[in-house]
């Protein structure tokens, strides 16, 4: 059966760094109620793994870290967003004012 | 080894001493006062040395550009005879796209010189990318810790772009959820790796910015035969203001008015999981700007070298909508497409230029690069997705975390001038409260006066009235 990731794949792993009760009491309620979590990328060291497995990876600087497999070949999907009608008039209007 | 939150924090003094190479204890005079210039001198490079180090990795010597079209537009709405000349220092031209390269360049150079194998920085912004880039150039490893996600795993697009940049430079990046425990992680990573702490608040980091102030003063002098009348500097942690003001002084530009500018995010809580993605600016805002003026020693090192209140002549707030409008102006009127966060000071410069006579010179101290996640359209799309109302209108109607109002006309861009007198009062009260000192000594009064750009008389009055309050409450 094909696994989600194999040795050498670039993957992202997830870690629960602190559980809610391990977090400092000085936090706002909404923050204290949730765990403190982290994600880091690296190359899979185990032969194969599936999402949800605890795995070992080598980070981009060569450190060995363990975590739960979250993504394989993670994509950067932040983008330029949708053109905003609240902004599109600004350039032309300012140019018109300069020409007057 | 105790890896709990309190356990690790209890070891912070030793961890940081090893990770910065500085014994802060040497500079303490009293619980209140410390030898600031002495601490700054532990970074033993002269300004010339610093500029040489920066040049080695392609940092600095950025263009100073006169924004003639914007100046003309501002003059058209100014009172007769007013509308100063607006210049901008294009710091986006630095290798990783911002003035932060100047801070990272010295820090990383230092780390290498002291024999560290790697550097660690806690930064969700341009500083992380700058450290990663400089580490790549100097052959050191870099670990960058970022606060990226709320508990729904929704990431601020600007920070996701920084993750991409840092990984692009080969750094190991930790993306964390909201919380001040970023400092705890930093300490753990420093303890484990024995890497150098590339803190924003150590002497070398502030010294790096002195080159910026010095350069812009020199550039104006060479072109115009005199120094700038006013410099506007985006303010958050204080390093930008501190370094630039010091650099201006070294260049001889000691009559220049130093103005700090921040985006107004008052009302939002910086450690709140809910508020985290209700803002469009991750730095350069009041959430850092005000606390770092009223209590600078809240940092990852015992004494903060970034001390904004020591150097600010004025402090102005602008709204999120104003900055997005200005970002559009810069692109469409001047052909410079730059990231919105880096246009905070340009935004404040518009109403400030209207106060000045036409032959006066105003310099906007920075720009930053732009990319996916950073353009106004990315931020406004994200804002709408997170329940923020966005509309055109009067920016005074904005509500941080709820409503962003884009001005309809440039005339509507105004600054909210912060009362530095009140801020100084808060600072002095905080000093007494945080140090628990009941009777400040002469050295303390002198230190506080310098640290708040006020006077011994002003400080004594406040200390006496604070005593009066305490006596009453007994």
Outline:
The complex is a heterodimer of chains A (100) and B (474). Chain A has 100 residues and is mainly beta. Chain A contains 2 helices and 6 strands, in the order ββαββββα.
Structure description:
- The complex is a heterodimer of chains A (100) and B (474).
- Chain A has 100 residues and is mainly beta.
- Chain A has one domain: SH3 type barrels (Roll), CATH 2.30.30.
- Chain A is built from two helices and six strands.
- Chain A has a four-stranded antiparallel beta barrel. In chain A, strands 1-4 form a two-stranded antiparallel sheet.
- The longest helix of chain A has 10 residues, at 90-99.
- Chain B has 474 residues and is of the alpha/beta class.
- In chain B, 45% of the residues lie in helices and 13% in strands.
- Chain B contains 18 helices and 13 strands.
- In chain B, helix 6 (100-113) crosses helix 7.
- The relative contact order of chain B is 0.13.
- The mean pLDDT of chain B is 95.
- Chains A and B meet through strand 3 and helix 2 of A and helix 5, strand 4, helix 8, strand 5 and helix 9 of B.
- Strand 3 of chain A pairs antiparallel with strand 5 (172-177) of chain B, so a sheet runs across the interface.
């Amino acid at each position: 059966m094909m696994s989600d990731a194999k040795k050498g794949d670039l993957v992202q792993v997830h870690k629960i760094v602190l559980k809610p009760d391990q977090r400092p009491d000085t936090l706002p309620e909404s923050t204290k109620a949730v765990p403190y979590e982290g994600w880091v990328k690296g190359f899979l060291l185990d032969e194969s793994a599936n999402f949800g497995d605890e795995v070992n990876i080598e980070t981009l600087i060569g450190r060995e870290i363990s975590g739960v497999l979250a993504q394989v070949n993670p994509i950067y999907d932040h983008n330029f967003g949708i053109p905003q009608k609240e902004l599109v008039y600004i350039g032309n209007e300012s140019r018109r004012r300069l020409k007057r | 080894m105790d890896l709990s939150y309190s356990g690790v924090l209890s070891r912070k003094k030793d961890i940081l001493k090893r990770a910065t190479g500085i014994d802060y204890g040497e500079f303490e005079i009293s619980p209140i006062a410390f030898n600031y210039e002495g601490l700054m001198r532990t970074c033993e490079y002269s300004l010339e040395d610093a500029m040489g180090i920066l040049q080695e990795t392609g940092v600095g010597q950025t263009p100073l550009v006169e924004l003639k079209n914007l100046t003309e537009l501002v003059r058209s709405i100014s009172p007769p005879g007013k509308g100063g000349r607006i210049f901008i220092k294009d710091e986006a031209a630095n290798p990783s796209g911002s003035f932060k390269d100047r801070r990272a360049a010295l820090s990383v150079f230092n780390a290498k010189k002291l024999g560290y194998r790697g550097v660690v920085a806690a930064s969700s912004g341009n500083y992380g990318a700058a450290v990663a880039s400089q580490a790549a150039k100097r052959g050191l490893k870099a670990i960058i810790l970022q606060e990226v996600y709320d508990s729904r795993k929704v990431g601020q697009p600007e920070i996701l772009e920084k993750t991409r940049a840092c990984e692009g430079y080969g750094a190991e990046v930790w993306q964390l959820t909201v919380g001040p425990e970023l400092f705890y992680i930093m300490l753990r990573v420093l303890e484990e790796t024995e890497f150098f702490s590339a803190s924003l608040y150590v002497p070398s980091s502030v010294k790096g910015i002195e080159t910026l102030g010095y350069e812009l003063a020199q550039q104006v002098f060479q072109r115009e035969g005199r120094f700038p009348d006013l410099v506007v500097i985006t303010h958050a942690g204080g390093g930008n203001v501190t370094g630039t003001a010091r650099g201006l002084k070294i260049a001889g530009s000691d009559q220049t008015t130093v103005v700090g500018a921040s985006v107004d995010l008052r009302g939002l809580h910086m450690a709140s999981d809910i508020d985290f993605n209700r803002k469009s600016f991750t730095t350069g805002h009041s959430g850092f700007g005000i606390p770092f003026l009223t209590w600078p020693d809240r940092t990852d090192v015992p004494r903060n070298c970034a001390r904004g209140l020591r150097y600010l002549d004025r402090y102005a707030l602008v709204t999120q909508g104003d900055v997005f409008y200005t970002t559009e102006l810069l692109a469409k009127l001047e052909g410079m497409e730059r990231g919105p966060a880096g246009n905070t000071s340009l935004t404040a410069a518009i109403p400030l230029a209207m106060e000045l006579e036409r032959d006066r010179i105003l310099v906007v101290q920075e720009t930053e690069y732009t990319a996916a996640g950073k353009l106004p359209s990315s931020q406004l799309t994200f804002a709408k997705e997170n329940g923020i109302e966005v509309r055109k209108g009067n920016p005074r109607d904005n509500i941080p975390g709820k409503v962003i109002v884009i001005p309809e006309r440039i005339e509507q861009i105004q600054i909210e001038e912060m009362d530095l007198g009140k801020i100084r009062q808060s600072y002095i009260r905080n000093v007494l409260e945080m140090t628990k000192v009941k009777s400040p000594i002469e050295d303390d009064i002198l230190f506080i006066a310098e640290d708040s750009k006020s006077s011994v008389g002003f400080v004594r009055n406040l200390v006496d009235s604070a005593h009066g309050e305490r006596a009453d409450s007994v």
